[in-house]
Structure to design on (505 residues):
């Protein structure tokens, strides 16, 4: 029985977990904005295991009990209905009380689970922010808060233990009651001459046979209830489908021409109009600089090109095809994207650079590292390219992380390269080295450089200045300077700042 039912339930659990995990990754960014990570993790672990309890133990014991009851009770009734009635009298009581105790136990267990995850989140945050805690001398305060959370966990755990302690005595009392009633009523029946002494012994065995199933019945009811609540929560996410789908799924090799036609976008959750009627064109193999202050909509442009979300109005065309017609994966594979906030995996430098590559060719890693001016840094690490980047790249400086992130994008030899403010932590000298290298290696690549610094965009064939999601100026570096408007002012301000920095150095 265990081999078939419990093993099968473990296999179903495995399938369910994999299905949910894969499904999560297909869901759009909006989904991740609306749900917190803790909730996602709970549904894939806790809820799945509750459903497994239903598919395994509940099914197994359920069948077991039904068959046992169907076989035993008719026998008892056949021998003596009166005695059957009295000896079974305490059993429904047993079932109900087990059910209610079990419900209390479940509720307390959930509280414990919550308190435990609260505790571990707190510990994780403490150690991620340990530098800040030390420098602000907050150790004692953090210890106090931890103590309070720990105390809460202890007190709920003790309450649970108390309820669990009630479990066994209740069962024993009610079974004892059944036995006393059976012996007493049995004796009365015996004196009336309705049954033999042997029948009383037989009944005692029946009562004993039935107590475990009846206890389990209460337990099962609560498992089933919990499983159904869990399954509902799982389905809620499984039924959500991504709204980023391709209409005609075209698999096309890109040349790299990009065109925005009257593009507007409003973030649905905040209602912020991030893009407002944008129009621009970039020829294949050319470069576009996008400059603007924080919050002007630069990253939104980048994210809309890789279709992390769909725009509300207008069209984005790549090689004169609407991007909604492209096969999404195939489109994204041909675009190199360096996000604004760098994320590196806890892995070696090589593996981080090779992240988006199918073939693992070390020479291309070397080339990408050279082109992003990483060699002198990497050579100074004892293990060179095999250096592990600690949790979130703790051993690297901001500029080094940015350059690894750029190397990861250019190693794909993309047709379109999008750099979202990823030169910000670099000094202007390193920035120039990288931009000069790009000119050589990115001849065939359409490059979009997003920045709030003139130095990053000034080499681009075309520059657009955006403010509140609108283009307020566009043209080449020279034209924009001659215009003597926003770009010109920003340029002078930044030149002034650079001069001051040079004086300090
Ligand atoms: N995920 C999001 N949900 C809601 N609003 C957002 C989101 N991301 C950005 N915004 C808003 O959209 C505007 C443009 O943001 P963004 O494109 O990131 O600007 P930039 O990259 O130029 O700093 C900002 O006002 C920002 O608050
Ligand atoms: Mg941005």
């Amino acid at each position: 029985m265990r081999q078939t039912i419990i093993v099968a339930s473990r296999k179903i659990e495995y399938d369910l977990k994999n299905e949910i995990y894969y499904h999560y990754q297909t869901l759009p960014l909006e989904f991740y904005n609306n749900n917190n990570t803790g909730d996602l993790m709970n549904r894939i672990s806790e809820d799945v295991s509750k459903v497994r309890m239903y598919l395994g133990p509940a099914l197994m014991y359920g069948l077991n009990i039904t068959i046992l009851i169907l076989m035993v009770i008719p026998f008892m009734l056949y021998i003596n209905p009166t005695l059957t009635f009295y000896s079974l009298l305490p059993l429904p009581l047993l079932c109900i009380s087990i059910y209610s105790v079990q419900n209390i136990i479940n509720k307390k267990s959930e509280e414990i689970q919550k308190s435990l995850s609260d505790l571990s989140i707190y510990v994780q945050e403490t150690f991620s922010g340990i530098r800040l805690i030390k420098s602000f001398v907050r150790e004692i305060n953090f210890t106090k808060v931890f103590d309070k959370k720990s105390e809460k966990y202890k007190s709920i755990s003790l309450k649970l233990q108390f309820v669990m302690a009630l479990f066994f005595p209740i069962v024993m009392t009610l079974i004892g009651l059944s036995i006393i009633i059976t012996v007493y009523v049995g004796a009365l029946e015996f004196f009336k001459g309705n049954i033999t002494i042997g029948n009383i012994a037989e009944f005692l065995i029946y009562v004993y046979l039935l107590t475990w199933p009846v206890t389990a019945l209460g337990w099962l009811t609560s498992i089933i209830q919990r499983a159904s609540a869990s399954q509902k929560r799982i389905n809620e996410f499984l039924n959500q489908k991504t709204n980023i789908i391709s209409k005609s799924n075209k698999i096309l090799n890109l040349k790299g021409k990009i065109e925005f036609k009257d593009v507007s976008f409003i973030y649905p959750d905040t209602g912020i109009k991030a893009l407002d009627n944008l129009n621009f064109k970039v020829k294949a193999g050319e470069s576009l600089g996008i400059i603007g202050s924080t919050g002007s909509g630069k990253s939104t442009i980048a994210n809309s090109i890789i279709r992390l979300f769909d725009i509300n109005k207008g069209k984005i065309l790549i090689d004169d095809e609407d991007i909604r017609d492209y096969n999404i994966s195939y489109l994204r594979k041909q675009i190199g994207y360096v996000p604004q906030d760098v994320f590196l995996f806890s892995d070696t430098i090589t593996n981080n650079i090779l992240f988006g590559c199918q073939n693992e060719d070390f020479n291309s890693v070397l080339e990408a590292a050279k082109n992003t001016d990483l060699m002198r840094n990497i050579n100074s690490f004892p293990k060179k390219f095999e250096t592990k980047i600690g949790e979130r790249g703790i051993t690297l400086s901001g500029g080094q992380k940015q350059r690894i992130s750029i190397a990861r994008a250019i190693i794909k030899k993309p047709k379109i390269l999008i750099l979202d403010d990823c030169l910000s932590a670099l000094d202007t000298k390193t920035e120039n080295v990288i931009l000069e290298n790009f000119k050589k290696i990115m001849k065939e690549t359409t490059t979009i450089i997003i920045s709030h610094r003139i130095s990053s965009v000034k080499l681009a064939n075309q520059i657009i200045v955006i403010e509140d999601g609108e283009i307020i100026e566009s043209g080449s570096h020279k034209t924009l300077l001659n215009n003597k408007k926003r770009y010109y002012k920003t340029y002078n301000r930044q030149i002034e700042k650079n001069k001051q920095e040079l004086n300090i150095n």
In short: The first helix runs from residue 2 to 26. Strands lie at 258-266, 273-282, 287-291, 313-318, 321-322, 335-338, 416-420, 446-451, 462-467, 470-475. The pocket of magnesium ion (ligand 2) is lined by residues 298-299, 340, 420-421 (CB under 6 Å). The mean pLDDT is 85.
